[in-house]
Specification:
341 residues; alpha+beta; Molybdenum Cofactor Biosythetic Enzyme, Chain A; 3 domains; six-stranded mixed sheet; 11 helices; 19 strands; metal ion binding; EC 2.10.1.1; MoaB/Mog-like_dom_sf; transferase; MoaB/Mog_dom
């Protein structure tokens, strides 16, 4: 690539797009990379403010911005992702399906720290829809040394930097605790909320039980659902520290291996999660899940439906960003809730 006076560019091949900006009207390329400059193009180029142009001069040690962006694309792309064509040296990846988007922050940081190149992604750990944009890649200069891109490959490592884990619709069961519901003194307002929330992921309720407050009865309801093949069991109510709140004990008695009781998230501090012997999740949902717009359950549910293990360490890491600000108009997930360091 070499720099020449625009007036001397007739017959030369552009090695980058030429962008024209008309304020309030348009912004876009007036000439594309690879265009052979014609005499009538010179006045247009000068009106775009291009007194000089970079034209292609082959150098085997260098890569053009589009070629470098393709390398960054390949470092990022995994299954269920579609790449755009290079445009002004940038390539974007989009989701091929609904799923949980995950980005390896440490390795992406290592690539970006090399300088002169960038990978920018959406927030990791949140649900995406088919067609959603996942990331963009490009180098900063117009050309870059091949050796620099080899350094990027080393920093990224052998595995793709991004994952899109498709959701798998589940048959779920709800164990509604509380003697007041069992006796019909109040209407169960919790279950309809869960049905609506899980329907967004294509899940259907396969079982419902109202065992009251007895821990053995709650445990029996959990085990009955498990024996019937229910894939996700949700226990509602009885999750605080009141003497008659027995749900945590019942979940432990079910044989579930407990990941954690309590999470650094508000709303949702009294959340509980365990896994049965075969890996099926059992959740204890505090009352806030019924009435609050977004809670701990909205952060955990996508992982459960994408078969991504929820660990005690991951739950502990939710503290920074784990405070919902209860905005008058909820914009989740386009907000700070659930987005840690």
């Amino acid at each position: 690539m070499k720099l020449i006076d625009t007036r001397d560019a007739v017959g030369q091949v552009l090695c980058h797009d030429i962008t024209q900006i008309i304020p309030g009207v348009s912004k876009g390329p007036v000439f594309r990379k690879g265009h052979i400059v014609q005499p009538e193009d010179i006045p247009v180029l000068l009106r775009c403010g291009k007194e000089h142009l970079y034209v292609w001069e082959k150098d085997e040690s260098m890569l053009h911005e589009n070629e470098a962006a393709e390398i960054l694309r390949d470092l990022c792309r995994n299954d269920h992702m579609t790449a755009s064509e290079p445009k002004e040296g940038k390539i974007e990846l989009s989701a091929d399906c609904d799923g949980l988007f995950l980005a390896d922050a440490q390795r992406i940081r290592a690539v970006n720290a090399l300088g002169r190149m960038m990978i920018a992604t959406r927030s990791s750990g949140f649900a995406v829809k088919k067609g959603d944009k996942l990331c963009g890649t490009r180098i900063i200069p117009l050309v870059i040394e091949k050796t620099a891109m080899e350094e990027a490959r080393k920093a990224a490592g052998p595995e793709p930097l991004l994952q899109l884990r498709p959701f798998r619709a589940r048959r779920f069961g709800v164990v509604t605790t509380g003697s007041e519901v069992q006796k019909g003194l109040i209407q169960d307002a919790f279950t309809p909320v869960l049905e609506q929330k899980l329907a967004e992921y294509g899940c259907t309720m396969a079982a419902h039980a109202t065992p009251g407050d007895d821990s053995d009865a709650i445990t029996a309801a959990i085990r009955q659902m498990a024996d019937a093949g229910v894939e996700l069991i949700l226990c509602t109510g009885g999750m605080s520290v009141d003497p008659d709140d027995r749900t945590p004990l019942a979940i432990r008695q079910s044989g579930a291996s407990i990941v954690g009781y309590g999470a650094p998230v508000l709303p949702g501090a009294m959340f509980m999660l365990g896994y049965l012997e075969d890996g099926r999740p059992v959740c204890g949902l505090p009352g806030c899940v019924m009435y609050a717009k977004r809670t701990i359950f909205d952060l955990v549910l996508p992982r459960l439906l994408a078969d991504v293990p929820v660990t005690a360490d991951w739950l502990a890491g939710l503290g920074v960003g784990g405070l919902c600000l209860n905005c008058p108009e909820c914009h989740f997930p386009n907000c700070s809730f659930g987005k840690g360091l």
